[in-house]
Amino acid sequence: MSGRSSIHSGSVLARLLWLVIVSSAASCCCSSAAVNISTSSDVIVRCMEREKHALLQFKQGLVDDSNALASWESKEDCCEWGGVACDNQTGHVIMLDLYYNLLGGEIGPSLLELPYLYYLDLGYNSFNGTIPKSIGSLSRLKVLKLAFNFFSGSIPPQLGNLSNLHTLDLSSNSVTFENLKWVSQLSSLRYLNMSYLNFSRAVNWPQSISQLPSLMELRLILCQLPDVDMASLSFINSSTSLQVLHLPYNFLGSSVFCWIGNVSRNLVSIDLHDNRMKGPIPNAFTNMDFLLSLDLSYNQLEGGIPKSFRSLCRLETLNLLSNNFSDRLEQSIGNLSCAQDTLKSLYLGDNLWWGSFPDDLTRFVSLQELDIDNATMSGSLPKSFRQLSQLRTLRLGHNRLSGSFPDVTGLSLLSTIDLSHNQLNGSLHDSLGQLSSLTEIDLSRNSLNVVLTEVHFLNLSQLLHVDVSYNPAFSFRVSLSWNPPFQLDELKMASCKVGPAFPKWTLTQRRLSRLDLSNAGISDSIPDNFWDLPCSLSLLNLSINQIHGRFPNLTSRNCRIYLIDLSSNRFCGALPPFHKNVSALLLSKNKFTGDLSSICSTQAPSLEILDLFYNLLSGELPNCWFQFKELLALNLANNSFSGKIPSSFGSLESLYQLQLQRNNFSGELPSLENCTRLVLVDLGFNNLSGKIQAWIGSSLKEMWVLQLRSNHFCGSIPSSICSLPLIRVLDLSQNNISGVLPRCLNNLTAFSLVSQEVDDLPVPSDFVLQHIWKGAEREYRQDVRYLRSFDISSNNLTGVIPENITYMLGLRSLNLSRNNLTGLIPGKFGQLEVLEVLDLSRNHLSGSIPDSFTNLHSLAVLNLSINNLSGRIPSSTQLLTFIESSFAGNVGLCGTQLNTKCPGDGPSEDPEVTGGAESDGFITTGFYVSIEIGFFTGFVGVCLTLLRKTSWRCSSV
Ligand SMILES: *[C@@H]1O[C@H](CO)[C@@H](O)[C@H](O)[C@H]1NC(C)=O
Ligand SMILES: *[C@@H]1O[C@H](CO)[C@@H](O)[C@H](O)[C@H]1NC(C)=O
Ligand SMILES: *[C@@H]1O[C@H](CO)[C@@H](O)[C@H](O)[C@H]1NC(C)=O
Ligand SMILES: *[C@@H]1O[C@H](CO)[C@@H](O)[C@H](O)[C@H]1NC(C)=O
């Protein structure tokens, strides 16, 4: 649906601006026309030699790569040159209009030789250097436009000498100025535009402007205008003829209203959007009898529409979008009553209004645009709604509106309706079908209880965008042969009752670019001719249905399609060659069978995402992956692929997600050294072997997640693994890894820092990780940013736990269990204060449990069992929550949890031992069991218990 930006600045303002442009352009045309007429009549106008010379001199300083001034050489009479106009009586050059000619270079002083010039427009070129002082001597100048160039340096104060000037446009240059004194001398000035200049030092700008008695239009857009200094306002006693005041994108606070209230009584249009105004709207509008347009959007104004607005009887546009208004909406609307007949555009959205939709609004009979989107409005739309006969755009989305869709009979101009994200729970009035101008309707995310029939679409021949998604009780009853009166661009019926039959009428829509029928209760096969998709289609989402059939061979289709999402259906059969112009192909959770050999027959250079997760695919992977150069995410997990991982994976240089887990891949990993963008690598639960190669750490610097769990990797951990600054999940468990733990683990930045910075990970929206946390497999998406897990359990590690592990201050889960680690538990273990899971069980650790364990306040799972630990279990409330099994199998340990007294303890009462680590009990039972539970709703049913013995021999290379 189209966004807000188009309405943001208000159409009336745009029209006013347009009038200014047209009128100035018109005056220019008149004078040049006059010149032409005179040259063709009896009075022969020849330009002055001296002025011609000056023009040529001026041209010499310019860079004219596009040869825009060619006529300046071909013609003798300079009055006939492009952009030059002379007085028809005297022959003096009076106008120089070189607007938008791609000219560059510097302006020399030669302009001084054109003393009769009254119009000079050099706007929208690439002039640089300083604005020449000499312009200040062109005393007849009335119009000076230098906008959108690269002039730099300070503005010459001599410009203040131009007492006849009525139009000055210096906007968008790199010029600087300390104050605006020179401007206040321009007593004839009517139009002043200095937008995009830096006003941060011109604190007295309001005084300077107030001294321009003839000023009608002031435009200072994005000027870093400082707030108005209230103290200086008392000096202002003059008032101007200002009508148009546009000061958006500045630093103005509410005190600007005090200035506005005094500067003019003629204001027609005020634009102050994107400033820093806070608090309620002050009482500055009582005398603005002529005000047509007011834009205060994107500030932090509070309260409501003040009583002073009751005198605005001509108001046509009011824009208060995105502030903090929190008044009762009905009350605020009451203060607009004088504009009841004139108001055409009302934008109140993105505020905190409360109360119901104001019935009074339906008396604003001229209203064309109404936006009260996202404003916590409740209640239902009134019966009188159809009085708004001029309405074109209606945006009331993101509120709490309930009830039915109103009677809209007679609103024949209405073209956009957005009632999305509300609580509408009634039906749709049949009059909807009469809205012959309707192009866009968004009713998504309501609870509409509607059986949509052909009546609802009767005259909607202009309709382009339809979104009725997420209305669970919204169903369709149209005849099989229905031929709708429209050709849609976008149709979204996700999570509605569309099925069980496939909606054949969608086949009549030959201009669709987006079609979303996901989760729509369709349990049918797709009609054969459906796959003759319109060329315009770029997004196709049929996911989460029970659609059966085969995925067709689309290779002959020549149109680009961005997304095909058929995931979670019952598609079956072999995969055909991929469509060569598809970007994302999501086929997960279907019943596709066979191997992937077909994919080599087409080049699919634009394929970015290929998701075949959870199908019945098998066989060896073909070695043609260099054809998919743009591939970003590849998920082949949970299939039965076997054989080696092909070496051509190494050419997938854009790849950031590689998921091959839970297949039967074997052999060694090919080099992925060039896949330097990888952030997620999951190869878990395969039969891969060989050493963990050093390039993993030295090349894959972007990696967040590396899971190699349950394979036959062997050898020692390369120390290069410590140079993965972003890694937050490192799971090497259940392999044959030997040697000692690297001494550099504290270099893993994400593990070692507890800071917001580490959490600020730019996780792509399609990121999905299956990770075992506290023994159960869970799915992580955006929340991967908070994971910090290091698991190297069930390997053959020897040696001691290096002290530097206690500097991995960000760790939330550490599992070193089931190795052959010896020595003491480092004394500073308690530094790992955010640790939630700690498993050191089944090693040969000796000595006592360090006292610092009492600092492990977040610990929810603790297992130190089956070691050689001795001494007293340190006592803290947290440690008391663990039961015997956390400590069992350590002959020398004593303490409450083990129900054994330590030497030297006096007689004591029975230790009170409470429940302990509830849900994680299985870790402490001594069996290392990893249970995978249903990880997608609707796809429960697979429940694997894996009991792996790591008795494979390390194949030597
Ligand atoms: C000369 O131009 C003026 C406007 O600049 C116009 O009013 C006048 O009619 C013109 N005279 C001739 C002879 O074209
Ligand atoms: C001024 O413009 C000329 C021509 O466009 C260019 O060659 C020169 O580098 C520019 N000077 C500066 C300071 O940008
Ligand atoms: C709703 O408005 C609030 C301001 O009141 C804004 O912060 C928020 O982003 C808006 N939400 C949407 C969905 O536009
Ligand atoms: C797919 O279609 C193309 C073009 O129509 C054809 O050349 C190719 O043989 C087909 N492939 C399969 C496996 O059907």
From TrEMBL:
<dbReference type="Pfam" id="PF13855">
    <property type="entry name" value="LRR_8"/>
</dbReference>
<protein>
    <submittedName>
        <fullName>Putative non-specific serine/threonine protein kinase</fullName>
        <ecNumber>2.7.11.1</ecNumber>
    </submittedName>
</protein>
<feature type="domain" description="Disease resistance R13L4/SHOC-2-like LRR">
    <location>
        <begin position="354"/>
        <end position="550"/>
    </location>
</feature>
<dbReference type="Pfam" id="PF23598">
    <property type="entry name" value="LRR_14"/>
</dbReference>
<dbReference type="InterPro" id="IPR032675">
    <property type="entry name" value="LRR_dom_sf"/>
</dbReference>
<dbReference type="InterPro" id="IPR046956">
    <property type="entry name" value="RLP23-like"/>
</dbReference>
<keyword id="KW-0418">Kinase</keyword>
<dbReference type="GO" id="GO:0004674">
    <property type="term" value="F:protein serine/threonine kinase activity"/>
</dbReference>
<dbReference type="InterPro" id="IPR003591">
    <property type="entry name" value="Leu-rich_rpt_typical-subtyp"/>
</dbReference>
<keyword id="KW-0812">Transmembrane</keyword>
<keyword id="KW-0732">Signal</keyword>
<dbReference type="InterPro" id="IPR013210">
    <property type="entry name" value="LRR_N_plant-typ"/>
</dbReference>
<dbReference type="InterPro" id="IPR001611">
    <property type="entry name" value="Leu-rich_rpt"/>
</dbReference>
<keyword id="KW-0433">Leucine-rich repeat</keyword>
<dbReference type="Pfam" id="PF08263">
    <property type="entry name" value="LRRNT_2"/>
</dbReference>
<comment type="similarity">
    <text>Belongs to the RLP family.</text>
</comment>
<keyword id="KW-0472">Membrane</keyword>
<feature type="domain" description="Leucine-rich repeat-containing N-terminal plant-type">
    <location>
        <begin position="50"/>
        <end position="87"/>
    </location>
</feature>
<keyword id="KW-1133">Transmembrane helix</keyword>
<dbReference type="InterPro" id="IPR055414">
    <property type="entry name" value="LRR_R13L4/SHOC2-like"/>
</dbReference>
<dbReference type="GO" id="GO:0005886">
    <property type="term" value="C:plasma membrane"/>
</dbReference>
<keyword id="KW-0723">Serine/threonine-protein kinase</keyword>
<keyword id="KW-0325">Glycoprotein</keyword>
<keyword id="KW-0808">Transferase</keyword>
<feature type="signal peptide">
    <location>
        <begin position="1"/>
        <end position="25"/>
    </location>
</feature>
<feature type="transmembrane region" description="Helical">
    <location>
        <begin position="927"/>
        <end position="947"/>
    </location>
</feature>
<keyword id="KW-0677">Repeat</keyword>
<keyword id="KW-1003">Cell membrane</keyword>
<dbReference type="Pfam" id="PF00560">
    <property type="entry name" value="LRR_1"/>
</dbReference>
<keyword id="KW-0675">Receptor</keyword>
